[in-house]
Amino acid sequence: MNEGTAYGRPEPTYDRDLVEVGPGSPGGELLRRYWQPVARSEEATGIPARIRALGEDLILFRDRSGRPGLLYPRCCHRGTTLYYGKVEDEGIRCCYHGWLFATDGTCVDQPCEPDRGRNRERYRQPWYPVHEYNGLIFAYMGPPDRQPVFPRYDIFDDLGDDEEIVIIDHFAFGGPVEAPCNWFQTHENSMDPYHVFVLHTTLSGIQFNEALEIWPRINFRAEPWGMVAHQDRDLPDGKVLHRVTELRLPNMRVIPTPTLSVLGRTNNLSWALPIDDTHTRVYAMLRKKKDQPPQGLPVYGPGKTWFDLTEEEHQLYPGDYEAQVGQGPITLHSEERLSSTDRGVSMVRRQYREQMAIVAAGGDPAGVFFDPEEAVVSVVAGNYIVDPADLTE
Amino acid sequence: MNEGTAYGRPEPTYDRDLVEVGPGSPGGELLRRYWQPVARSEEATGIPARIRALGEDLILFRDRSGRPGLLYPRCCHRGTTLYYGKVEDEGIRCCYHGWLFATDGTCVDQPCEPDRGRNRERYRQPWYPVHEYNGLIFAYMGPPDRQPVFPRYDIFDDLGDDEEIVIIDHFAFGGPVEAPCNWFQTHENSMDPYHVFVLHTTLSGIQFNEALEIWPRINFRAEPWGMVAHQDRDLPDGKVLHRVTELRLPNMRVIPTPTLSVLGRTNNLSWALPIDDTHTRVYAMLRKKKDQPPQGLPVYGPGKTWFDLTEEEHQLYPGDYEAQVGQGPITLHSEERLSSTDRGVSMVRRQYREQMAIVAAGGDPAGVFFDPEEAVVSVVAGNYIVDPADLTE
Amino acid sequence: MNEGTAYGRPEPTYDRDLVEVGPGSPGGELLRRYWQPVARSEEATGIPARIRALGEDLILFRDRSGRPGLLYPRCCHRGTTLYYGKVEDEGIRCCYHGWLFATDGTCVDQPCEPDRGRNRERYRQPWYPVHEYNGLIFAYMGPPDRQPVFPRYDIFDDLGDDEEIVIIDHFAFGGPVEAPCNWFQTHENSMDPYHVFVLHTTLSGIQFNEALEIWPRINFRAEPWGMVAHQDRDLPDGKVLHRVTELRLPNMRVIPTPTLSVLGRTNNLSWALPIDDTHTRVYAMLRKKKDQPPQGLPVYGPGKTWFDLTEEEHQLYPGDYEAQVGQGPITLHSEERLSSTDRGVSMVRRQYREQMAIVAAGGDPAGVFFDPEEAVVSVVAGNYIVDPADLTE
Fold this sequence. Notes:
Chain A has 393 residues and is an alpha+beta fold.
């Protein structure tokens, strides 16, 4: 008799806590305790833009005085969308009855009301505080009394005149900006260095650097703010490629360029922003010389960019997009059979669950700062070429 | 601490009674007590057409003898759609087994049954009575024992040889025929004259007539059949522009052309037909000289028609379509903050709720006629230029 | 007062048992007890293909040794789809971590695990047994302990050197491969010979053969394996066209070509595969001379193929596609009014319900074979020209 057929399988399920990001969900409440990137700076202009983040629809604009604003889309009066609003010096004016809202939601004009709104302080358009940093608009979408300080990221300190910081938001090295899958499955992939050996090297051809074909020694270490992975590869010349990646709670990761075009401490870090439960946008912030390209161009299989691949070439030369989106809009945890290569993934999930529990219990999660003096994120990730003797672990 | 942010908002809701139009809903039952326009006359032809009205799918055709018919789409035998039926002198023949139905649903031939259907009087295709008037097909979709007389509309009396009546069914002055939003939000906009001053004048540029930039005195008056709004504007020459609009229960409105190209009593009236809960089609019936265009051509912002505007131009020069569809497929009443400018809107809702209650209690709603002698709708709306002394109120 | 209007109709419903095909539904369990065609042979290649059958998504491929494989799409490790897998000599390798699965789901390599998977026998990719026959891939998707023998179909015995067997999978004579409707409504149409007289002859013009315009004597007979319909037409020359069609439980039917281009015993039979509850694919298997076309070309109304018809021509010259898809994604049984012409349809339903009950009670349904010696399907259908005296019934 045939065994193990697909007949009679139970209905698959996913772990809701790991994947849900909407208001009120345990994960959504954890993610809302941090400043989250919601758009590139150039998306905030005098023409209102539709933004979606953590399952919420919002309107982003920049008033004529240069201030970015992030407002709930439905006007608090009769509900017309501010997407059709008119951006002015002091804010955005609803097209329907002309109410004018500042970037903090206060109503500063009601042209059809007596005295242009003698009671207008009673009305306030729902809004979120924003912070502009290195080309990204960050928003704080959590409880107002827990708003943390926006931290300094030390790898961007002391920028030279010949340097600049750029934002790269193509998913998976040159793919679409928006990936149609849950954020957690792309995030935990950061702590799965084993797949690099298969997906990016032996199966699809060398997508990053041929040195990654060398089988590494891998270990993971928990940190108060997240976790670190070490991968050591013995190079032909007797040296060791000591590659360090880190993951910072809840949705930041620091992955030195896998093309190895940058050695030493990493020049970039990134955030996996959950657009909603089934869509993700990854923003990488990268420091570089002005006269150099960001990194090796992403090229697949027959020397094509991701967008130029035919459907069959996507099948023949899959990369991160195919592997992660290929897990479905939301991967089904009930069907997983974790193995020894999934130690990092398990640690990511354990840490995330711990932090959800802390927030649910009323506490403050790891890695948020309330004292501006302490608000520094010091990054350790990098691609290091070292002597074997210098490896302490 | 930041106040009024969008964090922690309750789930928004809408008032189901105001918006639902399907069979059995309070609003749907009220709307079904009136003759409703469901198509232009030229849509009823020898090729069956799919029609949707009040959330019901129907098939419209015109038999070879010239009679329009409106039938339930699924053949009462085995359910094939009559969209593929063959129109004949006496009705429409189902393509599957050839049953022939007259415009009143009676079955007049069953070619595969003994004696071509010796028991065919037992079968009847569900149907609705229709009435053709001035280029529109009206249907009565309510309880048969409450079917009212189709009334006369006095503004169309005594048509001269040089005159004609035309139907205009572009939403919001030149937009699409079908608007993807609930009918009630477009209907109550008729009793919101304040938005004219902003949306159609100061914000998007003058869309109708520059006289509408003058701030009006506005009042509303309830009538047994609906309500009337008066807007008085002091013109530079000492006269007053006395503009009267009316709304007739449940979904008719009489809005004199806002371009002011027609003075005196209105030459048009219109119905907001709910296609279903999230789609609306507005039919305007308009009397005019044969050698003149219906009214000033609808032109937006940079001198373009609605369809020619780019997405950004729709944002920069919004009109009724953008403001009303911009409230969403169904506006969310729980989030509204009504103000002094919403007196008319509140009256529209109150009257509609009163009529729903009357119908739910078994009564006949306002404005339906059962005696042909009394079935006259006498319209009062218009654009009147008057001496201030002649204004009685 | 008007009678029989569409006002106040009850909510329509369908008979779930007749239409549902998913795992665990009574019909789905019956259908799963038979080998079902899920693809043409040429769809199984070195590039994985997405297949959907009985509401289940699967991956079909052919390993480099020539064996077709049908696997559950999500890798049993971390759930990435095998659509991006790499086909090798021994099976298909998941793109993410390189696990290699044979066509029977066994895991034969785990490159990132110790010793390339010293515990890999613990993992098995869910799979289904397949059988390739005359150009089709059949799968057995039922309980493993009830897997029947794949039978011989006698009309394909003793193929001559100048003959071949071809697969035709266009729905309804030249339509799309996939029909957007439930399988049962297309299946029961096979036992509704009355519609031939209308749909295919008098209403749309002669679609098959003018002899079908002659009114037939029709009778139905139940058989242990399904049912047979006899249609006898008196030809002008005194002979009788004795047309025999058969339906074999649960979803096979044997319909001699209605163009009458083949006389005598049928040269073809077909299966209506439920893709899911609302999509159907019909596979016909046809024996023919190599130098002849499969049958008369399907041509509609103005001499066009189905795909070339305009929307209006589909309305004017409807065929099986329009009549069956026109019943909706799932026809609504609560609205049917069966008549004397529906005797065959009623018998189809009754037999199908009987077999569902047998399977639900733990038995084996009609027409499955467990003894290879007995596994022969002997077909009786055909277009026979006979003397009236030779008709026994």
